[in-house]
């Protein structure tokens, strides 16, 4: 899929899904919840709605349990492209919404390195 291309609604009910890991590990282990992933999820959900990007054929913002990439937390993944992001603040979320979810352009500076796991 090239950039600036929205997924076809015929590929599924939603054009894109973004999943935010909100998992919290017990016993002091690092996890996305300890890096305020909930705030990123909340910001994304509201920005997608404000931009008119939510709904069938468009974008769905979802909570997820552990995505098993804790060392890069907080993390989110956009499908169908399978693009993994890490983020720090609301500006990062805004950039993901505007660039990727709206315009189909991957935000290179926020990509989670492929070798980052648990």
Our Rg estimate from Cα atoms comes to 14 Å
CATH homology superfamily name: Glutaredoxin
Q: At the third CATH level, what is the topology name?
A: Glutaredoxin
Strand order of the largest sheet: 2-1-3-4
The quaternary organization reads as: single chain
Main sheet characteristics: 4 strands, mixed
In terms of DSSP E residues, the strand content is 15-25%
Tell me, what's the shape? globular
* Helical/strand content category: alpha+beta
Helix count equals: 2
Query: Mean pLDDT, as a whole number?
Result: 89
Q: How many discrete domains?
A: 1
Q: Total number of β-strand segments?
A: 4
Report the CATH C-level class: Alpha Beta
Note poorly predicted spans: 1-5
C-alpha end-to-end distance: 29 Å
Question: Under the CATH scheme, which architecture would be assigned?
Answer: 3-Layer(aba) Sandwich
N-to-C SSE series?
EHEEEH
> What helical percentage do the residues reach?
10-25%
Can you give me a brief rundown of this structure?
The chain is α+β, with helices and mostly antiparallel strands and 118 residues long. The chain has two helices and four strands, in the order βαβββα.
3D structure, described in words:
The protein is globular. The protein is 23% helix and 18% strand. A hairpin with a 3-residue loop joins strand 3 and strand 4 (83-86). It has 118 residues and is of the alpha+beta class. It has one domain (11-103): 3-Layer(aba) Sandwich (Glutaredoxin), CATH 3.40.30. It is built from two helices and four strands. Strands 2-1-3-4 form a four-stranded mixed beta sheet, covered by helices on one side. It has helices spanning 37-50, 90-102; strands at 16-21, 59-64, 75-79, 83-86. The N and C termini lie far apart (29 Å).
